[in-house]
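Write out a record, focusing on structure:
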Amino acid sequence: MFYQPENGHSLPHNPFSAIVSPRPIGWISTRGKDGVDNLAPYSFFNAVAYEPPQVMFASTSLKEGRHMGKDSVANIDETGVFCVNIVEYAMRDMMNDTSASHPEGGDEFTHAGVERAECETIACSRVATAPATLECKLLQIVPLAGEHNLIVIGQVTGVHLRDDCIKDGVFDVTCYQPLARLGYQDYTRVEGLFSLKRPE
């Protein structure tokens, strides 16, 4: 099968997000200028640089009446900071609850029963029990082709690692099984590892 995206496809559902998978989930927490916390998952998310450490996520939809498309991006645009919380398998239902669209000013931490803690380097809440959290300052918001597509790039200013996830000096992802997004309504989790030595 071959298709060109601008001409559509003959399948019942768009396969694009199933092709580019699995994708890590950035559970993005922000705080508005009014002090209200926001928490939302983004599956177009990844690390993009080591030195200094940088991450990105993309927002691809619109919330009516909200500048920058979504609460998360609008808050980041206004405050210059955000937090990336890593989602473990045990938190899948809470993460999914925070993906619902709420009126502006809604607090997803409270709605989904997510325990929060204050960040160390930025004025923002984080998911207190997340296996890892990255505190970030905004570097740039980049518009992409398409009406509502934006990339947010941040520099990591602080890192939280849950103590039980550190085994023999290594951050062990198998102990919390990170959740990853596939296509359609599907997810997966990391349960096992294998290593490959890079050639000299």
Summary: The longest strand covers residues 132-143. DSSP finds four helices and 14 strands in the chain. The chain has one domain: 18-189.
